[in-house]
Amino acid sequence: MEKAIRNKATVRDVKVQCRLQCANQTVFGEPLVGLELPFPGAGSVEDLSFFQKILKRADCVNSCETEKLGSLTLHQVSEEVELEFGKRTPYNYLQVAYFKIDKLDKAVAAAHTFFQANPDHMEMKQNLEYYRMMARVEEENFKDLEAKPHMAEFLMGKSFYSDDSFGLAAQHFEKALGEYFTANKECRALCEGGYRFDGYTYMEYSADLFQAMTDHYMQLLNCKQHCPVELASAAGREGPFEDFLPSHFNYLQFSYYNSEKYEQAIECAKTFLLFHPENEMMTQNLNYYSAVLGKDKAAAISARQVTAEFLSDLVLDSD
């Protein structure tokens, strides 16, 4: 079961690495030498160039994954198995196995990991209560082995923020942002998988070339648009955190203000306003920080570029 979890993580990581690596090697939109019109549809030669890049990227991804993972049949699993991993079922088996061989620290971690995604599982709740009464079990054993790095840092930041430890809060929110944008790239890369035949079987699906391309690409865009929702979701919660990414900058601007770091406060306030340009409270905060620092210095500070690019991608996906 441990090997299954490790292999699942390895397959995911390899797919992300291969798709990002191959995306960097095959860039769309570049014209062929001597041609002025770079976009597919401008002519037969340009169409050939477009499809040539698609084939080149497909070959790159397939070669990369085969080299690192072997044949597709070695790591392809059914939807049922994927669902079980999504429900963290392997950790349910693991906690029993660890308990039987007297590895209590690992049993507790596995039980806690499963329970985070299944908070209504009464048997596991009772197991955790039993573990807490055992003398050899430490509080540090109760850890989520599948915790998302960006979410863990965000929650740590909120904890320090609530304790008015604004310096530490800012550190964790900054780490959370770095992890968030990495996770977003990975999520978008994982969307570039095979076509899902929702509502019908493979044999029932009938479409010509361009309809098939359109169907698959629309599925890809829908998946990418869902990434912010997935990243704002934590195991065991009924729904995602509201306004998740902008809230980082809200927490940060106030944390930096309380640390008298007005340049950073202004940067974060301006970044927050990229999401909510009509927010009066943040506009007032920005005006105050600008007055303290000096309007000329404040005017030279821009919103964070990585966030502007993130929003640009969202707009392109929705259009």
TrEMBL record:
Coiled coil: none annotated. Pfam families: TPR_leprecan. GO terms for molecular function: collagen binding. It comes from the Eukaryota. Residues 1-293 form the Leprecan-like alpha-helical domain. One of its GO terms (cellular component) is endoplasmic reticulum. The keyword Signal applies. Keywords: Glycoprotein, Signal. GO terms for biological process: collagen fibril organization. Belongs to the leprecan family. This is Leprecan-like alpha-helical domain-containing protein.
